[in-house]
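I hope you will forgive my troubling you with a question about protein structure. The matter concerns a single protein, recorded as an amino acid sequence and a row of backbone structure tokens. Please examine both parts with care and let me know of anything in them that strikes you as inconsistent. Thank you for your consideration; the sequence and its tokens are set out here:
***
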Amino acid sequence: MIILVPVIDLNADLGESFGRWTLGDDAALIEVISSANVACGFHAGDPSVLRRSCELAADAGVAIGAQVAYRDLAGFGRRFIDVAPGELRDDVLYQLGALEAFARVAGSRVGYLKPHGALYHAVVANEGQAEALVDAVRTYDPTLAVLGLPGSLLLKHAAAVGLRAVPEAFADRQYTADGGLLDRSRPGAVLTDPARIADQVRRLVSGEGVVADDGTVVAVAAESICVHGDTPGAVEIARTVRSRITASGGSIQAFTNPAA
């Protein structure tokens, strides 16, 4: 049985606007979360958006993470691209460096990496791509943590080379029986009902496990809980999640905080 973690991180995606196109309410969301997965320009975000996102996080005392992705603005990074490992490593390094510049200007730093969208799912089982991400982090800054799906190759390879591998759970996504996430093309893949989300979070922090799409219960061990910034009602969802965690006796704190 998975025991309640008294301190847990609450992360969300930020910086996914682009030019005149706005996605999400970053200013409101930053007041609720403890870690911000900031888009690095490949699936969303532009230089001004990256800078503003880092400023918001730094001012709020929220940890900054690089949400790296395939080079896919048109598809919002949710289309798999069979990138050669060496090219993917360089793409990830490029994104890390870009976000680090804006984090430093804001008086903060990048503390972790999290893949986005199709890349997130690919590195669960794709050996070459998982190794490419780990190699990028290890060579760039081995003090960075790596955030990903429990049991993924990404986290296994990260831990094997001495990186901090941090498993996460999702408040607003439907799980499958194997502990994965239901494909977004399937009905019910994204949870939007506050009561349903609150119950999933309660089950996560209490150690009961989540209810999969086939009705089975799946154990999920996590140090962080994610809310998607582009989910309808994301700010209210994040507030619901935070309230449920604290009501269950837990507290919210970034996993990059040494005291966590």
